[in-house]
Predict the 3D structure of the following.
Amino acid sequence: LRLGVLASGRGSNLQAIMDAIEAGRLPAAVAVVISDNPQAHALERARARGIPAAALSPAAFESKDEYERAVVEKLQEHRAGLVCLAGYMRIVGETMLAAFPNRVINIHPALLPAFPGLHAQRQAWEYGVRYSGCTVHFVDGGMDSGPIILQAVVPVLPEDTADSLAERILEQEHRIYPEAVALYAAGRLEIRGRRVFIR
Ligand code: GRF
């Protein structure tokens, strides 16, 4: 399975995927990393592994649709079979979803459907929940709203700050994202409506 990874920043989930591949835990290859942010550390992480890395600035395009067409072209050029969003800070539009139907997945740092959107770990901490976690899900046109593949639960401790909670959630992200990609690669995920069955 050839992966196209879209990342806007730090790229630690990209790193976890590359490490899982290197360790033989994930039968896949990162074919290309694309960022909407030329400064993204994710691009350097890819280049350090000899993986093609491209920055595509939305501002350089006429419209979101034009921008996404360029992203899709890049993904197709590298023959990506699955698109992994890894800290990609944009809502995926119809252009990309039509090009990769049920082939775009995302990791979100909360137990969806609780706390979608930005700063989910801080949202959870401020709300005062006892448990939060992370979710890998298929991407649809909404905000963090597609069918759920895997989740991991992380307790919120009394001494936690939003940052310490985010750190413990991140450890679980790095565990379940490669695992979800491996399930996809093995053809073990079946979407039926909102439900994803693992066979
Ligand atoms: C992660 O917390 C992920 O769940 C969210 O954005 C963050 C990206 O971190 N979607 P990184 O760039 O993978 O380090």
